[in-house]
């Protein structure tokens, strides 16, 4: 894709995100309609649904021939990475949204034939938008993202999944102990932003495509590694335990996982 076309898409998507954020903030203090999906900890609200419908509508109008994969099911049934695929997470961290009205994100990704073109992760309350892709670089609120330091696990904080730590999946307790400390934010988007900004050396959780699709593009562009928990290539349509980290921390963690 030509760089001018990418920049035009980038400008357009940022406009959607700012409008989407405004929509969410206008309704954040209203009475929410909250339902459960797979369990009592897996929530969806009327705002999740409204926001996904809004974003899907914008994408349909802008790119009518593309497929759309949305968390709440208002897109398409996507089974192939051929052509253009937009991936949408309208509210990432819905439990945080419901219980705290904070620490949640909106995420959009654009892939073409399996290659990540553009990714967007917006911290709604913190008003941080991480955006970009391999052909234009990564930006934090419009400013070029500084080079992420290649910090080893022992010298940084690590973002982990609470359930994975409680069950010691993949030696999570040892990973936490070998770091300077673990953090559990409850939102993949917030964790991804924290890794990109150098606040965490890594993040591990069970993720679905809408949880990592945008972050994968940004993190790989920034020189970070995002793989399956055992270091294998991450398929954009997969649902699996995901390991995101600096290159040094990634190797440190793989060593612990394999023990």
What does this structure look like?
The chain is an alpha+beta fold. The protein has two domains: 3-144, 2-Layer Sandwich (Fructose-1,6-Bisphosphatase, Chain A, domain 1); 153-257, D-Maltodextrin-Binding Protein, domain 2, CATH 3.40.190. The protein has eight helices and 14 strands. The chain has helices spanning 3-27, 46-62, 94-99, 162-166, 172-178, 188-196, 209-221, 247-257; strands at residues 34-36, 43-45, 67-70, 84-92, 105-112, 115-123, 128-133, 137-140, 143-144, 157-160, 181-183, 202-207, 225-228, 240-245. The strands form three sheets. The chain has a seven-stranded mixed β-sheet, with helices on both faces. Strand 8 (137-140) and strand 9 form a beta hairpin. It is globular and about 50 Å long.
Beta-strand content bin:
25-35%
The share of residues in helices is 25-40%
Tell me the overall shape: globular
Architecture of the largest domain, CATH level 2? 2-Layer Sandwich
CATH topology of the largest domain: Fructose-1,6-Bisphosphatase, Chain A, domain 1
How would you classify the quaternary structure?
Answer: single chain
GO molecular function, one term: metal ion binding
Protein name: Myo-inositol-1(Or 4)-monophosphatase
InterPro entries: Inositol_monoP_metal-BS, Inositol_monophosphatase-like
Keywords: Hydrolase, Magnesium, Metal-binding
Task: Sum up the structure in keywords.
single chain, 259 residues, alpha+beta, Fructose-1,6-Bisphosphatase, Chain A, domain 1, D-Maltodextrin-Binding Protein, domain 2, 2 domains, 7-stranded mixed sheet, 5-stranded mixed sheet, 8 helices, 14 strands, 36% helix, globular
């Amino acid at each position: 894709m030509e760089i001018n076309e990418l920049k035009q898409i980038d400008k357009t998507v940022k406009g959607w995100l700012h409008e989407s954020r405004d929509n969410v903030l206008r309704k954040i203090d209203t009475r929410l309609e909250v339902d459960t999906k797979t369990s009592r900890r897996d929530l969806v609200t009327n705002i999740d649904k409204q926001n996904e419908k809004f974003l899907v509508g914008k994408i349909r109008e802008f790119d009518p021939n593309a497929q759309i994969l949305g968390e709440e099911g208002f897109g398409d049934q996507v089974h192939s990475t051929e052509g253009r695929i937009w991936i949408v997470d309208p509210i990432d961290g819905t439990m945080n949204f419901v219980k705290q009205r904070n620490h949640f994100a909106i995420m959009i990704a654009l892939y073409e034939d399996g290659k990540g073109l553009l990714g967007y992760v917006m911290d709604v309350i913190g008003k941080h938008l991480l955006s970009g892709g391999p052909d234009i670089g990564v930006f934090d609120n419009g400013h070029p993202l500084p080079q992420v330091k290649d910090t080893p696990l022992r010298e940084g904080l690590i973002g982990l999944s609470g359930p994975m730590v409680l069950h010691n999946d993949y030696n999570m307790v040892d990973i936490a102990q070998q770091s300077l400390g673990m953090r559990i934010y409850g939102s993949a988007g917030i964790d991804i932003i924290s890794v990109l900004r150098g606040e965490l050396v890594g993040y591990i959780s069970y993720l679905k495509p809408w949880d990592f699709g945008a972050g994968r593009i940004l993190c790989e562009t920034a020189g970070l590694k995002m793989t399956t928990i055992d270091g294998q290539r991450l398929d954009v349509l997969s649902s699996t335990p995901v390991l995101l980290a600096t290159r040094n921390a990634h190797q440190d963690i793989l060593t612990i996982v394999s023990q």
